[in-house]
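Usage

Read records sequentially. Each one opens with the input sequence:
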Amino acid sequence: MTHTSPPDLASLAHTMPDGVVRAAELRASGVSGSAIVGRCRPGGPWQRLLPGVVLMSSAEPSRRQRLRAALAYAGEDAAITGLDAAGLDHDLGVRAQGDVHVLIPASRRTTTNGYVFVERTTRMPTLIERDGLRYAPMPRAVVDAARREHDAVRLRALLSGPVRFGACSASALRVELDSGNQRGSAAPRAALRSVSDGVVSLTEALARRVARGAALPMPRWNVPLRDVAGSLLGVVDAWWDDVALAWEVGTHHFRLGHTDPSPGYASPALTSAGVIIVRTPASRLRSDPTGVRRDLVQAFHRAADRVRPPVHALSDRAPTR
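and closes with the structure output:
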């Protein structure tokens, strides 16, 4: 066998997607096993991310490189699920970290290893390929993540996020819960019932209580907004449609492409469209409900005194108390 020379190895790294490759592919390309072992030693130019999977770089691997390595380890028919797949298109306010959750057919015998949690399933989903990686569809990914989530606040955020964004419906999540593995499904079922009832967080429940005490019409809750062209501008916690007034409560809000935890933040797309937004930290809902109501009333009158901007709610649901 003709061995690839070191300069060729440097070039080879640029041909591998994300610099991640199976050791078997390297050997098939003419790289000797001893060369692979030598380059993956501590201080070497490469590193072994998982058994049989090499990163052709000594730098700290990115999340994407870890995802690609997980698929390389799990096999061609594997799919990424859980938080990494659920957050593919929409920032749900719950970021993937730690383990990578992958699905493989039940007939396979690949096991959990390192940072990769391998789940064998008789219900392999139809895979979605994006930018060279394979993912489970949104409902499956969300439910797979929810079954492993033990924090109640994160669980509510995970289940309410795709529903708010329109990425999938509460009914689709319910069907997935009913169809899949029942282990770990009790807490997601309870949380999903609260999403279906429209109460998606303790903070929102408190905000509704504050709003009921204000001398204002009741708003709609969790409303997607669009401009005259039909483009989605964002999702607001509460919305007074007659005057185009939005209210954002708490410290984490789902937005197009990112979550911003800073007080006083307002979606640039919404403010550019002329929406007046009141931003209230969750702590103030408890400590100063009277002051919050005063802010809402003042903002409502200010919004009513201007020409209403051409912003429309996607939901036709009536205000709820």
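Summary fields computed downstream for this record:
- The chain has three domains: 6-61, 64-196, 202-313.
- The mean pLDDT is 83.
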